[in-house]
């Protein structure tokens, strides 16, 4: 996965020098924004742009958003109009800098192009006389910058739990996307910033994709096993069951978008309870019932009839008539084979059930 490989290089570059972590992250994004933009713009699936000013509750929201989206794009909320973060010393390699991911993905990157709206921020730095050889092997000189550096909240988050989220490649920090204020100006001129990055806005004042009410509905759903899963597990289940994830996310989005009552009213709470009952609880229950029913069809195994099952599987999946499958068998054998055919059909239908993706997630939490 291209984004995952590129972002893994951020930590390979910065984590060996914890005293210089903030400055190294700053340099890395200045040097690699074009590659990140190109990879993000080519990223398949649904990407949501989320404006994040605080990471205190972001992970809970992220896990819920991952039930409907493939990639979350973090755009920080710097105003770019005042000194928000203070002075930051940035270690800049004196010798040639070469991204660690380049040899691995150069063939993938070569045909890609960054979005034309990619913001390449090149601050005016002033050099100091301090030089140093870092643990990552680079000889660096320090440059000073006292204006609007990457927010401390983001740096603190990726130095702890956020690291595992970033390494999946399904959460992308994108300081190269124009700011919220810039985006509104683009919209006034009929230009969608999000579309230029192959993404969709999640929170966006008068241009909501998910409104505040819809986000609150998503957060109100009781899915405790999702909150208990780590991001790597959620990502793997989504990749292994991509079709089932797409089907489930479509149904859940339609249900959330269908809420008509106002946030904070009893009508809103009732509609959320209906989504919980019909699309979470009942969907999981239906899958579990089918699983138990398939498990109870064990006559063939108990009877020790194994010969020809491979051919039976093939015949059943290819749609051979049941009468043709059992021709020539004794009545008792025919009954067992018919039972196996029913089991195979149920197994095939199981993955088509609305709650199957959610059920797979639930199983991973046990």
Q: How many separate structural domains? A: 2
- The succession of helices and strands, N to C, reads HHEHEEHEEHHEHHEHHHHHHHHHH
Number of helices: 18
Overall geometry? globular
State mean pLDDT (0 to 100 scale): 79
- Class from secondary-structure proportions: alpha/beta
Radius of gyration: 26 Å
Number of strands: 7
Distance between the termini: 28 Å
How many strands, which pairing sense, and closed or not: the largest β-sheet? Answer: 4 strands, parallel
* Adjacency order of strands in the biggest sheet: 6-2-1-7
**Helical content class:** 40-55%
Q: β content, as a range? A: 5-15%
Low-confidence stretches: 204-208, 299-338
Written overview of the protein:
This protein has 366 residues and is an alpha/beta fold. It folds into 2 domains: 2-207, no CATH class; 211-366, no CATH class. The protein contains 18 helices and 7 strands. The longest helix is centred in the last third of the chain and has 31 residues, at 266-296. The chain starts with a helix and ends with a helix. 29% of the residues are buried.
